[in-house]
Design a protein that fits this description.
It is built from no helices and eight strands. With about 80 residues, it is mostly beta strands. Strands 1, 4, 5 and 8 form a four-stranded antiparallel beta sheet that branches. Strands 2-3 form a two-stranded antiparallel sheet. A two-stranded antiparallel sheet has the order 6-7. A hairpin with a 6-residue loop joins β4 and β5. It is elongated.
């Protein structure tokens, strides 16, 4: 499953605020992830969950974060 976003928000080292680390301006990025849908066994309510797959950061981002979301190429959106 692909989740489309225009920016990724991240907490940076202590003393720094949460900031957006963007993909190309005005171009959404697709992140790899897994999802599940199930009915709560007590209420019957339909629950949807989603988790973003992460990987080692590239050289540029490694200075500020220990992992990055897996960004998909357009040809891989439906894999």
């Amino acid at each position: 499953m692909a989740g489309f976003v225009s920016a990724k928000w991240a907490w940076f080292p202590p003393g720094r605020a949460m900031e957006a680390a963007g993909h190309r301006p005005s171009t959404p990025a697709a992140m790899a992830g897994i999802w599940e849908e199930y009915a709560d066994k007590f209420t019957g309510e339909l629950i949807r969950t989603f988790a973003i797959a992460t990987c080692e950061p590239n050289e540029l981002m490694a200075t500020i974060h220990d992992r990055l979301p897996v960004i998909l190429a357009p040809e891989d959106y439906m894999r």
